[in-house]
Amino acid sequence: MTELKNALRRCGICIVFVAFSVVFAHAQTDPLPSWNDTAPKKAIIAFVEKVTKDGGADFVPVDQRIATFDNDGTLWIEQPMYVQLAFMIDRVKELAPKHPEWKTTQPFKGVLDGDMKAVAATGEKGLLQLMAATHAGMTVEQFHKIVTDWLATAQQPKYKSPYTQCVYQPMLELLAYLRANGFKTYIVSGGGVEFMRPWTEKVYGIPPEQVVGSSIKTKFELVDGKPDLMRLPEINFIDDKEGKPVGIIQYIGRRPIAAFGNSDGDQHMLEWTAAGDGPRFMLLVHHTDAEREYAYDRQSSFGKLDKALDEANAKGWTVVDMKADWRTIFPPQ
Amino acid sequence: MTELKNALRRCGICIVFVAFSVVFAHAQTDPLPSWNDTAPKKAIIAFVEKVTKDGGADFVPVDQRIATFDNDGTLWIEQPMYVQLAFMIDRVKELAPKHPEWKTTQPFKGVLDGDMKAVAATGEKGLLQLMAATHAGMTVEQFHKIVTDWLATAQQPKYKSPYTQCVYQPMLELLAYLRANGFKTYIVSGGGVEFMRPWTEKVYGIPPEQVVGSSIKTKFELVDGKPDLMRLPEINFIDDKEGKPVGIIQYIGRRPIAAFGNSDGDQHMLEWTAAGDGPRFMLLVHHTDAEREYAYDRQSSFGKLDKALDEANAKGWTVVDMKADWRTIFPPQ
C-alpha cells in the first residue's frame, strides 16, 4: 500500500506538472498564425472562448459544437473554374478515344474543342450528359480511385501546383483550432460528395463521413460476382443554396452553431445557422486579393458573392477580406 | 532544469504506473458480461482483438473501424409491432379530434377502430397518408419534440416499460466494447431517421449524426419568420434491404468492416460488408426466447428472418441464439 500511495503522490505531482505545461504552452501559441490581428480573427477567438467557457452564460456542450464549411472558394480554390469541372473536362478528353462520336456531338465536341459557349448552349441536359459520361457507370470505390489518380497529376493553372495544395492555410488553422476546442467539423459543399471524400481527411482532417455534398444515385448490385455499389447517371441531391440546410439535417440531424462560406450558395446555410438559439457564428470569405489569389464577387461565374454579402453586412456576420485579414494564403510547399 | 528533470522522471514513473493499472484492470474486466461464454461472444472478441492488434496481419486502422447496426429487433424490441408503428397509431388517435372526417375515412378509420386489416387493405397509398398525417407538416425540431414527449409516456405492452428500456443489454455492451476499441458505431435502420435521432445518444451512445435511416423530404422555408426545415409528406429514401448499403455509402462514404442485424432487411448490408477486403464480421440476432422476449423468424410480420438466416448459416456469419447466448436481455431497471 505504501508503494501505491507513493506512486499516486508522484502521479499527482505529474498531473500538476503536465497541466502547467499545457496552460503555459497554450498561452504561448497562436492558434491562427496565418490570420492578421484584425476583426475576423478576434471574432473567431472570442466566439470559441465564449462557447467553451465551462459555466459561462454562452457555454455550448461538446456534442452541439457542430461547424459546417463550404468547400469551393472557402477551403480550396475555385478559380479559374471549379476543380470538379476541370476534372470533368480532363475526363472527357481521356475517354474520348473510346467515343469517336463525341467529335461531332455536343456537349462533348464543345469540351474537346475548348468551346465552353457551345457546352453552355446545351444547358442542363448537356451537363447531365457530361456528368453521366464522366461520373457514373463505375462503383463508388472505382470512382474514388479515378479522382485520386487525377488529383495526383492535375495542376491548378495559375500556380502549377496540385489542387490539394491550393487550399487556404488560414482555414486549415481554423479547422484545427475548432477541433482542438471540441468542435466537429463538416464540409457542406455543392460539389460532388464522392469527388471530395477520397482526400478530405488527408488535406483537411475531415473524414469521409463528415462530408456532405451533391450526389448521384447509387444502386446495390453484383459487380464481378461481388456485392457492390454502382453509380447511376441520375441526380440524387443538389447540396446548394436551399439544399445546404436540407443536406445538413439529412446527414447530421442538427443545426450547426457555426457556418463558413464564400458565396450566395452558402447564404441559406448561414441564415439557418444564425436562426438557432444560443451563440452563433457566421463567416464569409471575400476574395479580394487579385495578386496573391483572385479577386471576384458579385459578377463571378464561379463563387458569385452578391446577396449573401449584402446580408452579411446588414446582419453583422463576419466577412474576411482576404487581402487585409490573411497573412498567408496557401500552406508552405 | 533540475526541477524539470525530476518532474519528468516522476512523470515517467507515473506513466508506467498508469499503464500497469490499465492492463491490470483490463485483464480483470469482462467487456460483455451479459453474453454467455458461447461461440458468438468468442467470435466477437476474437475479431476485435485481431483488428486492433498493432502490427498484426489483420490490423485495421482506427479510421476504418466502422460498425453498422440495424435498430428494430437488433438494438431494441420490434414486437408486437415496430415501435414507430405504435407511435403512428397513438398519433392518429391524438390528432383525431381535429379531424372528424377520419371516423369514416380509411386508413384512419381502421387505425381508430383497431382494424389493422382495413388499414392493410389501403396498401402503400394508405400508409403514405398515415405517414403524411403523423410525420409531416412540422419542422424537424418540432417533430423531435413530439417523439421525445411520446417516448416519455408510451409503454411496451408486454413489459409495461418505456420502449427505451426495452433495448438489449448485450448489444449495449457490444456497442461500448467496440467504441472502446476505436470503432465508430452507426445505426442503419429501416425506421425513420428523425424518429431515432432524439434519443439514440442517450440510450445507445450513438449521436444523431451517426444515425442512418429512412426519411421524408424536408424543405427550407420561413416558419414564424425564421429560417427552418419543414417536413414534407413525400418519401425521400427507404433505408431497407438494397437501400441499406446505399444509405451507408451516402451518409458514411465507406464500407463497414462489421455489420449487425436481425432480419432479411439487413441481408444486403451484411453481404456488402462481407464483400470488402480484409477482416470482416457479420452477425444476426435470432429471436429464440419466447419466455424472456419473443420467438419469431421465418413467418414474422415484423423482423422476418428467413433468407438472411439461410445465408448466415451457409456463409458462417455469426448467429446469436438469444435464449442460449444471452445471459440477460434487458438492462437492469
Number of helices of chain A: 14
In terms of DSSP E residues, the strand content of chain A is 15-25%
Number of strands of chain A: 7
Helix content of chain A: 40-55%
Structural class of chain A: alpha/beta
Describe the largest sheet of chain A.
7 strands, mixed
Q: Largest interface, per-chain counts?
A: A-B, 46 and 46 residues
* Oligomer status: homodimer
The residue ranges of chain A in which pLDDT falls below 50 over 5 or more consecutive positions are 11-26
Series of secondary-structure elements of chain A, N-terminal to C-terminal: HHEHHHHHHEHHEEHEHEHEH
Q: Gyration radius of chain A, to the nearest Å?
A: 23 Å
What is the secondary structure topology, with strand pairs?
Two copies of one chain form a homodimer.
Chain A: H1 2-28, H2 39-52, E1 66-69, H3 83-95, H4 108-113, H5 116-121, H6 123-135, H7 140-153, H8 169-180, E2 184-192, H9 193-196, H10 200-204, E3 211-223, E4 226-237, H11 243-251, E5 258-261, H12 267-274, E6 281-286, H13 307-315, E7 318-321, H14 322-325
Parallel strand pairs in A: 1-2, 1-5, 2-3, 5-6, 6-7
Antiparallel strand pairs in A: 3-4
